[in-house]
Amino acid sequence: MERRIPPATLWLAVSFVAAHVAFQFATPAQKDWIYYSFALFPVRYGGGADGFTHWYEALGPIFGHVFLHGGWLHLLMNTLVFVQGGPFVEQRLGALRFVALFFISAAAGAALYIVLNEGATTPAVGASGAVCGVFGAYFLSVGRNWREALAIPQVRNGMIVFLVVNVGLAAVARMTGFIPIAWEAHLGGFVAGAIAYPLLAPRDRFVSPWAR
Question: Buried b vs exposed e over 62-87: b needs ≥16 C-beta within 10 Å?
Answer without folding.
Answer: bebbbbbbbeeebbebbbebbeebbb
